[in-house]
Amino acid sequence: MFKNYIIVAWRNLLKNKTFSLLNIVGLAVGLACFILITMYVMDELSYDKHNEKAERIYRINSDIRFGGNDLRLAVCSDPMGATLKKDYPQVEQFVRIYNSNGSKMLKKGTAFIEETKVAHADSTIFDVFTLPMIAGNPKTALSEPNTVVISKSAAEKYFGTVDAIGKGIEVNDEQHTVYKVTAVIKDMPQNAHFNYDFIFSMDNVEYGWGNFLSHNFQTYVLLQPGTDYKAFNKNFKQVIDKYILPQAKQLMQINSMEDFARTGNKLEYSLMPMLDIHLYSDRFPELGVNSSIQYVYIFSAVALFILLIACVNFMNLSTARSSNRAKEVGIRKVLGTGKKLLIGQFLTESTLMVFIGLLIAIGLVWLSIGYFNNIAGKTLGITMLLKPGYLLFLLLIPVVTGVLAGLYPAFFLSSFQPIAVLKGRTGKAFSRSNFRSALVIFQFFTSIVLIISTIVVFKQLNFIQNAKIGFNKDQMLIVNGTWALNNNADAFRNEVAKMSGVKASSFAGYLPVSNSSRNDNTFSTEAVMNEKNGFNMQVWNVDYDYIPVMGMEVLKGRNFSKEYGSDSTALIINETAAKMLGFDDPVGKKLYTLVGNDNELVSYTIVAVVKNFNYESLRKNVGPLSMRLGYNKWATAFKVSATDVTALLKNIETKWKSMAPDMPFSYQFLDDSFDNMYRAEQRIGKVALSFALLAIFIACLGLFGLAAYMAEQRTKEIGVRKVLGASVTSITTLLSKDFVKLVCIASLIAFPVAWWAMSTWLRDFAYRVSISWWVFGLAGFVALLIAVLTVSSHAIKAALTNPVKSLRNE
Amino acid sequence: MLLELKNIFKWVTVGGNRVFLLKDVNLQVQEGEFISIMGPSGSGKSTMLNVIGMLDGFDEGEYNFLHESVHKLKEKQRAQLYKQYIGFVFQQYHLIDELTVYENIETPLLYQDVKSSERKAMVADMLDRFNIVGKKDLFPAQLSGGQQQLVGIARALIAKPKLILADEPTGNLNSKQGEEIMDLFTQLNKEGVTIIQVTHSEKNAAYAGRTIHLLDGRIEQQVTN
């Protein structure tokens, strides 16, 4: 019986080549999208799961509000981990990770190379995280100063062999420390929230240890099995009272946490499950680029909807074609086949169709995975499909999809009355169906929502590109690592500034883009700091040229100037800081801050207010910021004019090589760094665009088939109408009208849904575009245009047919 | 004279050989005539009717309709011509299943841009005349064959054509219904409508004033009844 099903299914497939092709292509494209997105989602959900104790690892987060400035930190103070372990038996182990500058210069052969995958960590890192060692002892690997654990690929890069234990790596710090390799670990997996090639000993970090008030360390704790971390969070109150308050009392005259809270301030700690970090954590500073659960949801929904669109095609085409099958159903029923067997037969057919589609889909995935990785920023491999879990999933797809797509057509077809169909009275039931209309509406609803989303994402990206950000990011060349030139830094800057094509220069350790240096300090408006007058603010060391070179605008007061001898205690604040301070005229007012390891209180005089500039992503509001005179030579900014940038870069590199032959020359353009902040949005834009196009493509395949069938069904009617004098135009209109109506209804449903979805997305941005009405108009129009173009080719063909042919008697 | 066919040839080429569907057909039809076309299956009756109705072209010869040379007209002008002057009646009635009796009759007027109020009056008139006012909201499937053909004729007449072309109008009807239809044709003819019908039945052919016998695409004889 089953063999018979397959044979009939196969013959039907070959008999209606056009319909089979439309169906299979639609299903294949839909399934390919579905598989790609599933791979993406599985990868996102797999982050950090390779850790054997993953469920028990938690990160300590800090939430601080001080003087109206909110800080949501992924770091906490240096003694916190050890304190928790000492006082609470639930804490089995802790580890701190410190990655202050994000990069180190390491010597390979005779030259230095900049490595970015570096960090310092406690030796307990191997107790908490699962980092399999190829060689070395995890118990002792990082327990001494001047030790480093490197990855397999780092060992191969620096020593040409995995066998690197005992060898030395020189770091270009002040002492030119040589670190001894004590262990080689396997490369960390991509799907982890941090990824390092070099883990240095924590003992080499120069720091004012034991300070509960400075938050600089990523700290992870390993809890005993069965510990409720939410309950554990309550213990932090005790920790604050016992350890933090005494230090705060001493430095800032804060006497109780109640007083502290009463003035609108906040200090809270909490544990965050490590497995949540990749998808839920958006704090500062993160150890890697995190994703968002929002995108996982969005992608999953898109995957499901695209697959549904493909299924809907199948349902639509199968039921539309049902009159072709009606006679077969009639005969089978007369011959005694029951309804159940018929349903089984039709489901076999749909599953066969989906299975063929799946084979093509896997081919499509194989072809497109490179492109997908590129736009989604992933490194997924097709081999992922071969994992047993996924293989089972792949086998389930055709069954589930086949049933999903085939169930309605199966019931529809198997319910025909044999006498009626055999007498040829199939008539009305096939030509129009509300259910089928609903399915077409669903397809276009999805397509239109995707179109609108794509437009809004690109509008926001465009807005970001052209937003008034308060500084000039264009033609700004940043040469990194100029601090390494030591005393030559000034000479280098001056020499380059003299080159043609360079207009101005400034040392620029702090840059108004994410992932550049930051420094915040506690300030107060009075000489005695307490919880009422204290507040946190960014403080950047800049030179005389920084503000004009960056194109920032001084609103009140004056820039730092060599003409004023006292400018070493001058401070320039931004508008947010000025607003927060509440002075009528902040220029001339004094601010106090603690400086140095012995926490000396120093006073600064405000000399200017600078117009707000966005120094973080436009997702965030501009926070309070101040600038004081100082030289941070970490990087140097050159304002260039765009004549021959390549030649200029070559000149600068030559200059660099002559001054620091063993240092790598590394540079960036500020506008590129600016764009990098919106990589995630650009990805979403591209992904949304790709899937919107595919969704529309699949929907159009279905519509194309449906229109062809409708035209065929209505041949007689069209013939009659033509004989009665209908023109080609009126016939085309007649046939297109129904579909246009459906697209219009789909638009009306899609508009509010898309509006809601995109408003939610835009809410993440402090600076955002509005969703104007034309977006909806455009999306509706595009969908309509595509639908009309798809349908009208058939309609016109039908309208041009000679009625004599369609009305012939036989 | 209403129309004239002069030396009309129509053929199809099968395997390099011409197979003639119409061979040197000459016919003159005066206004107010009632003509039957008879002949065995495949003799070219329907083809001839389609040529007269301008639904089908021909390969050679001249066709004049109301002093217009149809063979020289463009497709659009031809459509304009038959829309205005010719009504069609089919053996299978060819009513539009999705439309009611009323709407079916109204359809030709829609394609001739007749105003809504006028259309209403004309359709009401027609329903009245054919005694089918009570059935105006029914769908074709709810009517008997005779009633459907009545609607078909009503639809053919609604635009006040000069010529009715009927392709075996009674072919699917029982004899009583057929008789009624033929009586209706006779009456219409008396009112001045020219009618050309294709029929297999001698009895029905006899209602006409003239019978044309076709054989293998050529006019074998014409008999005046």
From TrEMBL, chain A:
Q: Write down the InterPro entries for this protein, in alphabetical order.
A: ABC3_permease_C, MacB_PCD, Macrolide_Exporter_MacB
Q: How does it sit in the membrane?
A: Multi-pass membrane protein
Q: Which residues form the MacB-like periplasmic core domain?
A: 20-238, 469-613
Q: Can you supply one Gene Ontology CC term for this chain's record?
A: plasma membrane
Where in the cell is the protein located? Cell membrane
- Keywords from the UniProt entry: Cell membrane, Membrane, Transmembrane, Transmembrane helix
Per the record's keyword annotation, is Transmembrane included, yes or no? Answer: yes
Entry keyword Cell membrane: yes
Membrane spanning residue stretches: 21-42, 295-320, 341-369, 389-416, 437-458, 687-711, 739-759, 771-791
Which GO terms of the molecular function aspect are on file? Answer: transmembrane transporter activity
Domain ABC3 transporter permease C-terminal: start-end pairs: 301-418, 690-798
Instruction: Return the protein name.
Output: Putative ABC transport system permease protein
Automatic annotation (TrEMBL), chain B:
Stretches assigned to the ABC transporter domain? 3-225
Tell me yes or no: is Amino-acid biosynthesis among this UniProt entry's keywords.
no
Q: Which domain of life is it from?
A: Bacteria
- Entry GO terms, CC: membrane protein complex
Q: Which PANTHER family match?
A: CELL DIVISION ATP-BINDING PROTEIN FTSE, LIPOPROTEIN-RELEASING SYSTEM ATP-BINDING PROTEIN LOLD
An example Gene Ontology molecular-function term: transmembrane transporter activity
Instruction: State if Nucleotide-binding is listed as a keyword.
Output: yes
Pfam families the record matches: ABC_tran (PF00005)
**Which keywords, in A-to-Z order, does the entry hold?**
ATP-binding, Lipoprotein, Nucleotide-binding, Translocase, Transport
Output this protein's name.
ABC-type lipoprotein export system ATPase subunit
Q: What is the lineage of its organism?
A: Bacteria, Pseudomonadati, Bacteroidota, Chitinophagia, Chitinophagales
The organism encoding this protein is Lacibacter cauensis
Q: Which family does it belong to?
A: Belongs to the ABC transporter superfamily. Macrolide exporter (TC 3.A.1.122) family.
